[in-house]
Structures are given as structure tokens and as C-alpha cells.
Amino acid sequence: MTRLARRAPRLALSIALTTALAGLSVLIAAPTPASAQEGDDADVDIDAAVKALVAQLDAELEHLRIEAIAQLGELGTDAERAIPHVLRRLRRGTLGEQIVAAESAPFMDPASSEVFAVLSGFLSNPESHYELRAAAAAGLAFMGVESDVLTPRIVETLARELAAQRHGNLVDEALAKGLGALGPRAADRAADIETALAATPFKEVKMRAFIALSEVVPADPSADAATLIGKLESPRAGTRARAYGQLAGLGRKAAAAIEPLLAISARPDAEIYDRVVALRTATRIAPAHERVLDACIAALEGEDPLLRGTAAAGFDLLERKHARAAGARLIELLKTARTHRAQIAALDTLRRLAPTSPTLIAAEIEALKSATGATDQMFIHELIETLRAAGPAAKDAAPVIASLLAPAPAILEGRGETDRDYLRGHALVAIAELGIPDDAADEVLASLEGAHPRVVLCASLRAIGALGAKGAVAVPELIEIVKGSAPGLPSMLPFLHDSFPRLEAIRALGRIGPAARAAIPALRKLANLSERGGSRIRTLETQAARRALEKIQG
3-state SS string over 296-309? Predict the structure, then answer.
């Protein structure tokens, strides 16, 4: 499995991990696409990391063991040799350890019969905790997607448990979602999904089962589109779900279904799962169709989050030749939308569709310039993040973003202290990557003074490093942080969640280069530490210290 695939959103239910890791997320420093952009600072010796994490599985404190399990899962198949150690925690660990191990072990070895046996045992045991069963269902679904050898057994297990309807909504929702992710691989057990769809009293499960049934139906090129269109009005939910799936499988041959599908998606009296799947089916038949694009734009402006998500996914299906025209419509929505919610939806979609479009970047810069203290906070964050994601193409946005660091910018007027800290922290991270304007260097250096330790500090350190030799004036403060005088907890910023003060200070010293020679003794002390038996953060710090010394000493 590639590193990129490991970092993709997982199938596991977020609620299971959220509960298991409540209060612990600040201790986990998992690599992310953002941190991967750090270049040589992101390189970690995988063997050393695995050894350190395996040793950490025997730590006295539970949160350290949970951290190690989660990190091994992030390493994916690179950590396959650690499977026996994770299995030990999966079988006999605390509930928190078991939940995280149920999600992590499949990523480490998707073809493991032993992992399959343990997870299926949890799933079928009514005495297992419901969150553990939900995590097991999600883990098995991932294994079914990844491993052809185990797929039939996994499909049978998930379908049998879903049809049994004995778990409650969280577990059954995970089962249905997993079967949907398996797609046509689960076609032989479509009847079990339909049974659950008809019997479940839970709306969330009904939604997932309806979607799953439409996903598992295999394509039938000989199907008659007119007949299938007629079935969309059937009183049986299962019949409608199958019809949606077969129409999607016909692709352009089902062009006649576009208008009926869009009519269903817009009907306020229709079941929400019908509306969602109808819109999804239309986008799969003809994503570039003018009427389909109209419907997706309308959904992005609507109130239902499921329809907004479906519309956004529809834009992802567009071929390159159609993406430009669709992007222009989304940019227009960005300018004219009646709500910030619709603007955020447009931005999120554009970030995937055409992040480096000059027209988009110009529109985002203009929106940021016109923002005031009354502008929605989340919308501003989305603007900054979309510009950051555009990389060098958005370098002209750096001065506008840097203006948030001024003493009293209009965009921060009337906001609370925490909101101001979050916006300034985000601005620091963004300009560190886009390029710090010459006239913003003083504001960047000043941001370190009195910085909120959980919000601005790590972002400030990142930006000071980006100043290079111009950041030399901050070397004494950076040395104090390296020596351990700063809080050890990581940044609270969601776009910098894997950032620790000391690690950022070490990296900053390396980027400052020879002008940071005063830091050599402190860096040597860290560089000489053994990586064996330490935590992942210590491994990162030790390796970063060695690289920083190389840059400083030349």
C-alpha cells in the first residue's frame, strides 16, 4: 500500500476513535499530507520508528500504548512485522487499545487471516462493546477492499451480521457502510442488505443500507433504462435502490433517466436517501450534463449536508475538459452565495477540482481582502487553507494573508482572543509555505513573543524557520525551547495538528543555518540520544536535530 493510500480517509467510524482517544489526540503526531510538504524534515527512519513504537506498546500509561498502536496503523504495511504485538493488544488490551487496534491492524496487514478471525469474533459476540464491534466492522470492510483472498469470507461475515439486526444503529451503520464500500464484491449478499433495509428502525442504518444496496448491484449492460426508470417510483425501497444502481451501471446509455433522477433529488417530500442516491446516480451517468451541474450547484446552496456532500463528489467525477467550466460556476457561487455554508462548500469542492486556477486564486484573494470582523470565521479559514493548498501558484496571496498579523486588522475586529489566535496561527502556517513578504518579517518574529502556547506557538516557529537567515534574531529563544522550556503539547491548530514546539524549534534552527551556530550544543545533546525504546516524537526530534546540525555546520 502506498503512503498516499495510507493517509487517505479511513473506513472506520470516527465516533469509535473519537471516544477511544478523547483527551489523547494531542499526544499523537501522525504524518499528514501537510507535514509531508516539509521535505527532508518529514523523512523518518521507518525501521527505527517501528522498533520504538513496539517498545512503547509495553508502556505503563495507557495513552502511550494507544498512541503507539495508532502510529503503527499510520505506517501501514511498513509496520507489518509488528502485527503480533498489535494482536496481543487487540485480544487482551483495554477497551481503548482494542478499538484502536481493530482499526489499525487491517492497515498493517489487510490479508491477515488472524486479524480477520479476531475482528469477526468481536463482531459476532453480542457481549463485545458496541464501539469495538463498529470498529471491527469498519476494519473488516477495509480488508475486503484490499484483500481478494479474504473478500468472500468478509462479505459473508458483514452481510450475515447486518441481516441479523441485533447490534444497534452504530454497528449496523458500520456494517452497511462497509458492504457499500465493497461494491459489486458483495453482490451475492444483496438480499441481506435489502432485509436490513426493510427491517431496521434506525434512519441512519436505513440510509446506509439503501446506499449500499445501490452500490453492490452489478452492472448489467442489457438492462432496459425505461423499465428501470419506472421502478424509481416503486413503493419498495429495495426495488428503488437496485434501480438506481443499475442505472448508474448503464452510464450514458441511461441518459433518459437524468430528468427523472433530478426531479426526485429536488422533491422535498421524497426520502432523503432517495434524493441523495438519485443525485449521485445522475452525476455518475452524466457529470458534465448542464442540468446535472445545475442540480449540484443548487445542492451546494441547500441546507442538507448529505446532498451537499453528494454534489461535491459529483464534481470530482468530471473529466479535465469539463472541469474548467464547472470551476467557473463554482467560483461564481463563491461570489454570490447567500450563505457562508454554501461558500465553504464551493471552496472545498474547488480545492479538489482546480486548486491552482488563476481565476480561483484571484477570487479567493479578493474575498479575503473584503473580509471584515463580521465575516464567518470558518469561511476565512477555508479561504486561507485553499490558498495554502494551491502552493506556489498562490504566492500573490501571501501579503494579504500576512496582513492578519498586523496590530489591528479589520478582519479581526470584534473577534474574541481565541478566534484571533486561530486566524493568526493559520496565517503564519500559510505564509511559511507560500513565502513570507519582506515587510511581514517583523510581525512573524513578534508573533513568538507572548504566543498562546497551544495555538500560535508552533505556527510562529514554523514561520520563523521559513525566514531562513533573517530569523537569526530568534535563535536564543529557539535554543530555550529546544532545551525544554516550552510546553510539550502540540499545536491545537487542526491544520498543524502534528506539530510540537521543540520539534518546530529544531527544524527552524536548521533552516536558519550557519547563523544558528549557538544552538549546536543543545542540538548535539538531542542528536546523540538513542532512538531505541523512545516514543515517536523523540525519534522525530532526534532525527531532526541531526539534520539541523548538518545544515548549520555545512
Answer: HHHHHHCCCHHHHH
Burial (CB count within 10 angstroms: exposed 0-12, middle 13-18, buried 19+), residue 204: middle
Alpha-carbon gap, residue 65 to 306, rounded angstroms: 36
- CB neighbour list of residue 28: distance below 8 Å, 6 or more residues apart: 21, 67, 70, 71
The amino acid present at 198, given as its one-letter code, is A
Which stretches of 340-376 are DSSP H helices?
340-353, 358-370
The DSSP code for 421 is H
> What is the DSSP code string of 204-259?
HHHHHHHHHHHHHSPP-TT--HHHHHHHTT-S-HHHHHHHHHHHHHHGGGGGGGHH
Could you tell me what percent of the chain has a pLDDT over 90? 68
How many other CB atoms are there within 10 angstroms of residue 220's CB atom? 12
Q: Which cell numbers hold the place of 161?
A: 451480521
For 322-376, write each residue's pLDDT tens digit.
888 888 899 999 888 888 899 999 988 888 888 888 999 999 999 999 999 999 9
273: which 3 cell numbers? 436517501
pLDDT of residue 364: 93
CA-to-CA distance for 116 and 420, rounded, in angstroms?
48
Inform me whether the pLDDT recorded for 199 exceeds 80: yes
Is residue 453 within 8 A of residue 487, CB to CB? The reply is yes
Collect all residues with Cβ–Cβ distance below 8 Å to 121 and sequence separation of at least 6. Answer: none
Q: Which three cell numbers stand for residue 329?
A: 460556476
Nearest to 89 by CA among 103, 60, 109, 69: 69
511: cell is 533552516
CB 512 within 8 A of CB 469: yes
Which grid cell is 519? Answer: 544552538
> How big is the CA angle at 334 (ends 409 and 330), to the nearest 5 degrees?
150
* pLDDT one-digit tens code per residue, 475-518: 999 999 999 866 677 788 888 876 889 999 999 999 999 999 99
* CA of residue 548 relative to chain centroid, distance: 30
Alpha-carbon span 523 to 349, nearest angstrom: 43
> Are 101 and 57 in contact, with CB atoms under 8 Å apart?
no
Containing 375, the helix (H) or strand (E) segment is none
**Quick check: 51 and 534 in contact, CB under 8 A?**
no
Query: How many CB atoms are closer than 10 A to CB 424?
Result: 23
C-alpha cell at 6: 495510507
148 neighbors 131 (Cβ within 8 angstroms): no
Residue with cell 428503488: 240
Instruction: Please state, in angstroms and as integers, the Cα–Cα distance from residue 448 to each residue in 3, 424, 476, 504, following that order.
Output: 34, 12, 12, 12
Residue 61 φ then ψ, to 5°: -85, 135
Chain-centroid distance, C-alpha 146: 19
pTM assigned to the model: 0.75
Per-residue confidence (pLDDT) for residue 20, from 0 to 100: 31
Quote the crossing angle between the two packed helices 305-316 and 320-336, to the nearest 10°: 140
